[in-house]
């Protein structure tokens, strides 16, 4: 067996569990250390996933010579600092979405990763899910003809905690950075390009962040993608791609989907299911490991250029809706 890649986890909150469960299905990977601002949280996580080291300081984790790569699952406003800490210590980085809060921060991380010859990727897990390979094959084969439009929603009604990461501007809350990033990312994936024009509308809540964001993205040849991301309503959360001959539906929740339907006019629907081995996070981890072993500094599937352009697009959308965070 290939030598194992040894992972460290920074900030073992909710989503870090999906990462840890995914890694259990990868024989040549293991988590060897975890760090949290709370020693208890680190120890609880370490016990659950049989992680040998639990630290109460991130600096201790990145200084651990046994750690090859770091998965960062802290909050949006902490991603820059934690990713930079890991890069400076010579560790490869897989950081939760969004990569940072601003494009300027992402640019600095990319520059540093390249200088240090380290791998850096935004953990955009959707892009590595097996069902997306099927959708890509349908699109490439022209099964729905020429693409004309896309529609999607990412909406749910969370418990209203105004000091939590979804609503608090000090934690870079709001629908765009947290969930709007997915329809933006899948639209880009379908088109292989960023929009040429955007129209956006937001409902800002009393904490000052966007609780609903609706957007129309206009691509080359007038292809449009319309989406809403919101914390105000329970949505269907599927993603439709419409063409001249039919349409594709990526089943809910489209950002973590294991199924899709191809509907071509006057033909029987094709329904495909592609279940995950574990949580779905294992595929992005495998991609990061493939790239690290090959000596790549970035993945072609979530490249540095892609992430920087996405952050620039989100900067533009935030400027349009007047969303500036207190720490900016
Ligand atoms: N890929 C996906 O599907 C997906 C899904 C959900 C979230 N995410 C992303 O993953 C990241 C973490 O989300 P999560 O839901 O796991 O978050 P979470 O459980 O609320 O918190 C994650 C960590 O952030 C730190 N933290 C939490 N609240 C804090 C506060 N008020 N002030 C300072 N630090 C605080 C803690 O780090 P310490 O343990 O070090 O104290 C905590 O363990 C976010 O960037 C989010 O966008 C991704």
The geometry reads as: globular
The strand count comes to 14
Q: Low-confidence runs (pLDDT<50, min 5 residues)? A: none
**Straight-line N-to-C gap:** 47 Å
Helix content: 25-40%
Q: What's the Cα radius of gyration? A: 20 Å
Helical stretch count? 9
Major beta-sheet overview: 8 strands, mixed
* Bound compounds: NADP nicotinamide-adenine-dinucleotide phosphate
Widest sheet: strand order?
8-9-10-7-11-12-13-14
Q: What name is given to the CATH topology of the largest domain?
A: Dihydrodipicolinate Reductase, domain 2
Query: What CATH architecture of the largest domain do you see?
Result: 2-Layer Sandwich
Give the overall average pLDDT. 98
Give the CATH H-level superfamily of the largest domain: Dihydrodipicolinate Reductase, domain 2
Strand content: 25-35%
Order of helical and strand elements: EHEHEHEHEHEHEHEEEEEEEHH
Find the structural class using helix and strand composition. Answer: alpha/beta
> In the residues, how many domains can be counted?
2
Classified by CATH, the class of the largest domain is Alpha Beta
Summed up:
The protein is α/β, with parallel strands linked by helices and 328 residues long. The protein is built from 9 helices and 14 strands.
What is the strand and helix layout of this fold?
Elements: E1 5-10, H1 16-23, E2 29-35, H2 39-48, E3 53-55, H3 58-63, E4 69-72, H4 79-88, E5 92-96, H5 103-116, E6 120-123, H6 130-140, E7 147-155, H7 175-191, E8 197-204, E9 210-218, E10 224-230, E11 239-243, E12 246-250, E13 259-264, E14 270-273, H8 281-294, H9 304-321
Helix pairs in contact: 1-8, 4-5, 5-9, 7-9
Bound molecules: NADP nicotinamide-adenine-dinucleotide phosphate.
